[in-house]
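Saturday, quiet lab. Running sequence design on the structure tokens for the scaffold JK sent over.
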């Protein structure tokens, strides 16, 4: 890791304190940050993203921050998970302390907290309000788009000219994990136990190992999470998931129908594709490359991006979740292109 550009980080912290938006690298994806305790600053996030204001945002805290300032009725399980996984890609949903503005929680009585491990994010959080503030930050992309894993992706989303809603974009290289944090709801611990709102790098099995309970899947009354909408994380080119054994035949039929397709695959190269990317074999490697691959294949302006589907095993849960949402209408897309 390069040495930190402290002048840039300090300037960004001052911008946040003034109520401006700053894009920051994290180990999962780049975030679009604002002062979590300044409702006008948080409102700028919603405006920049084009995101409905009833969607809560995650509050990012400096290492060692006092979570008792942000949340109340914190269960013992939360402390154990924090000791084990923070700083890192785990967001905990807890009951919101009454003085925390509901702008960050979309009007719900909970708050999402996470301490990122990326050195630039940590340095920024230590500088901002002397480490006592919280930075509200959803992924730094337009609502529903693919999340950014490089500073260039953020520039591609928001531009760099004077019209950009961002005061600055901090550089931090390519995000190590590559998909958004695991979100675990502990705000209804007594009645519902731990609930996995979004799978990610930290798995349900790892959580169970620490707290002795397997997180449940969300029920209808679980706190809303926008990353849990269908049709999220999607490029503008339609995406279709295709099982490995059907890939060759699907490509042949698309070629015969005069369709242009790009492919994200793990096995043999695809001769007729206008663009293709061979992905790493491991779940971590695949997650690391996934969003950059979707963006690159989107740029090929194909009729469809075919993605070779992945094993259903637990270790692929985070990646499969994102792919399923990006490809929420695979069957419909393929039948339209082939009819
Ligand atoms: O890895 C990540 O979590 C990244 C980086 C920037 O930290 N952030 C991220 O933010 O993915 P976003 O806004 O794209 O997704 C945050 C998810 C949303 O689905 C949101 O609804 C949920 O977290 N969330 C935040 N606070 C919540 C709350 N109080 N209750 C329920 N869900 C919450
Ligand atoms: Mg997002």
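Result came back. Writing it out in full:
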């Amino acid at each position: 890791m390069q040495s930190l550009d402290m002048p840039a980080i300090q300037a960004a912290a001052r911008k946040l304190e003034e109520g401006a938006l700053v894009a920051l690298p994290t180990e999962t994806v780049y975030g679009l940050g604002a002062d979590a305790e300044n409702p006008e600053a948080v409102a700028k996030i919603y405006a920049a993203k084009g995101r409905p204001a009833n969607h809560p945002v995650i509050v990012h805290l400096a290492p060692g921050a006092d979570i008792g300032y942000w949340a109340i009725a914190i269960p013992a399980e939360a402390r154990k998970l924090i000791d084990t996984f923070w700083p890192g890609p785990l967001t905990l949903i807890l009951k919101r302390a009454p003085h925390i503005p509901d702008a960050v929680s979309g009007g719900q009585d909970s708050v999402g907290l996470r301490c990122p491990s990326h050195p630039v994010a940590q340095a920024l959080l230590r500088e901002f309000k002397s480490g006592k503030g919280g930075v509200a930050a959803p992924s730094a992309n337009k609502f529903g788009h693919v999340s950014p894993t490089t500073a260039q992706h953020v520039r591609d989303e928001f531009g760099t000219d004077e019209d950009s809603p961002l005061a600055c974009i901090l550089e931090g290289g390519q995000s190590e994990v590559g998909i958004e944090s695991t979100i675990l709801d502990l705000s209804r611990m007594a009645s519902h136990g731990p609930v996995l709102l979004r799978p990610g790098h930290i798995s349900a099995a790892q959580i169970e190992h620490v707290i002795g309970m397997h997180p449940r899947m969300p029920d209808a009354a679980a706190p809303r999470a926008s990353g849990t909408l269908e049709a999220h994380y999607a490029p503008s080119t339609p995406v279709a998931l295709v099982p490995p054994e059907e890939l060759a035949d699907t490509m042949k039929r698309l070629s015969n129908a005069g369709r242009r397709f790009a492919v994200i695959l793990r096995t043999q190269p695809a001769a007729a594709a206008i663009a293709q990317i061979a992905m790493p074999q491991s779940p971590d490697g695949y997650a690391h490359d996934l969003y950059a691959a979707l963006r690159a294949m989107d740029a090929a302006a194909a009729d469809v991006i075919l993605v070779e589907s992945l094993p259903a095993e637990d270790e692929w849960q985070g990646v499969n979740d994102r792919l399923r949402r990006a490809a929420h209408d695979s069957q419909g897309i393929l039948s339209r292109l082939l009819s």
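Notes for JK: The longest strand covers residues 90-96. The domain at 6-211 is CATH 3.90.870.10 (DHBP synthase). Ask whether to fix the surface positions before the next round.
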